[in-house]
């Protein structure tokens, strides 16, 4: 068994979580279109990344910063809708017209995961800079045979992004810390035609993230090694009380009026609009999304990253680790230029710039940062005590397991699936 197939829960594993907002669709120019210098190596390359809003992506801004600092370089950026990004990238790679630099995720559990893409020969091995950025213990979801195929950028929190200002304006004193407090807040807001949580139920990535964020408290807080046990065949989704509680919580939240009306058919714009306009208090979205949404919200919104309440006597737990990776297309004709760009992205200046633009913590320096007064202040103690788990689906053996979860949650919201059916589908997708 090769190293990357050893499934273990590691603190430093990656999170592949979508940002939110109105979808933007842009064309993608292939790596074969790059122009060359007289020496044969191109100084023009293309860069594709996922986006789910109509604001300028941090990647777009960083590409512009790089071109400004390197006047001889031209980067063609290709923002691509997040909900279909994995399928789009794989199709482009198979067709030979993918960008030179592409945004990917670690592990095998996502359609854009670097392990299956590298196994298929689509990704170029990276150098020591990328290798040095990998958090200790997470090598297996970045490497094959000691070769690295994705360069991490950030450290992301996957929990609830909440507008404390909206909560206060609706008579809610702070974010709920227990399920009883949360249910009371849901009932009060629903009575006024608002919701505590905004959910993009029609968008699979948001449905899947919601379930995984809740599973942090219901599954992994009690059993951090659950994924390894599942890989060993010692446990199953269908027999897991924690996973049953996770999915039942989603049904309970809907029944309690915690989600906005029509959440099962809503897209990402429901989250952006709900949080920016104050009709919803929070949503299960990545931490950096708070920065993006705050641009469209009034100053008094006061966004913060908050933990979802544990059930009964459980303890607070969140998703936390690196987010997306950058990879180089193995078929690129501008590999040197692409490598130079990745090298620059790893610099301390670019890391700081990325943090300022995205709100995500820099992967190389987050542990040394003072987060007092930032959106992360409510979860500082959880980070210090390592009360977090990486996104489970990046540890799972194939994208089908996560697909089954996403579709299953959507079925729970519409009443077309039961908890047992969803968990059985996930076990079947695991391959046993």
Alpha carbon gyration radius: 21 Å
Gross CATH architecture of the largest domain: 3-Layer(aba) Sandwich
The structural class is alpha/beta
Q: What percent of the residues sit in helical stretches (DSSP H or I)? A: 25-40%
In round numbers, the mean pLDDT is 87
Rounded to the nearest angstrom, the distance between the terminal CA atoms is 18 Å
How would you name the oligomeric state of the polypeptide chains in this document?
single chain
Task: Count helical runs.
Answer: 16
Tally of domains: 2
CATH topology (fold) name of the largest domain: D-Maltodextrin-Binding Protein, domain 2
CATH uppermost class of the largest domain:
Alpha Beta
The CATH homology group name of the largest domain = Periplasmic binding protein-like II
Question: How much of the sequence is in beta strands?
Answer: 5-15%
Globally, the shape reads: globular
Taken in chain order, the helices and strands follow as: EHEHEHHEEEEHHEHHHHEHEEEHHEHEHH
**Biggest sheet character:** 7 strands, mixed
> How many beta-strand elements?
14
Unreliable stretches? 1-40
């Amino acid at each position: 068994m090769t190293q990357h197939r050893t499934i273990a829960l590691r603190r430093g594993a990656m999170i592949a979580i979508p940002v939110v907002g109105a979808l933007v669709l842009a064309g993608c120019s292939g790596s074969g279109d790059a122009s060359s210098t007289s020496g044969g190596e191109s100084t023009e390359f293309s860069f594709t990344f996922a986006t789910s809003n109509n604001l300028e992506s941090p990647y777009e801004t960083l590409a512009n910063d790089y071109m400004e600092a390197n006047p001889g370089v031209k980067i063609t950026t290709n923002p691509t809708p997040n909900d279909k990004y994995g399928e789009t990238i794989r199709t482009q790679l198979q067709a030979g017209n993918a960008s030179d630099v592409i945004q990917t995720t670690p592990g095998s559990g996502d359609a854009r995961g670097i392990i299956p893409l590298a196994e298929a020969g689509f990704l170029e091995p990276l150098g020591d800079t990328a290798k040095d950025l990998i958090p200790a213990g997470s090598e297996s979801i970045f490497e094959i045979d000691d070769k690295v195929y994705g360069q991490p950028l950030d450290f992301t929190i996957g929990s609830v992004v909440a507008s404390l200002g909206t909560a206060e304006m609706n008579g809610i004193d702070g974010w709920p810390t227990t399920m009883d407090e949360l249910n009371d807040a849901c009932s009060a807001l629903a009575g006024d035609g608002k919701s505590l949580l905004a959910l993009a139920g029609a968008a699979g990535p948001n449905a899947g993230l919601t379930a995984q964020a809740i599973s942090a408290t219901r599954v992994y807080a009690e059993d951090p090694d659950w994924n390894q046990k599942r890989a060993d065949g010692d446990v199953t989704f269908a027999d897991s009380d924690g996973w049953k509680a996770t999915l039942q919580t989603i049904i309970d939240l809907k029944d309690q009026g915690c989600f906005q009306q029509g959440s099962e058919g809503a897209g990402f714009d429901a989250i952006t609009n709900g949080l920016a306009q104050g009709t919803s208090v929070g949503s299960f979205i990545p931490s950096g999304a708070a920065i993006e949404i705050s641009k469209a919200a009034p100053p008094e919104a006061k966004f913060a990253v908050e933990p979802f309440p544990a059930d009964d006597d459980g303890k607070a737990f969140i998703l936390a680790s690196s987010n997306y990776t950058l990879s180089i297309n193995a078929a690129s004709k501008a590999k040197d230029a692409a490598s130079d760009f990745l090298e620059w992205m790893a610099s301390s200046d670019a890391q700081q710039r990325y943090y300022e633009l995205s709100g995500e913590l820099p992967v190389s320096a987050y542990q040394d940062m003072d987060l007092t007064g930032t959106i992360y202040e409510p979860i500082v103690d959880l980070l210090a005590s390592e009360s977090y788990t990486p996104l489970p689906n990046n540890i799972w053996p194939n994208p089908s397991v996560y697909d089954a979860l996403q579709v299953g949650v959507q079925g729970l919201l519409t009443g077309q699936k039961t908890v047992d059916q969803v968990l059985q589908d996930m076990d079947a997708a695991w391959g046993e």
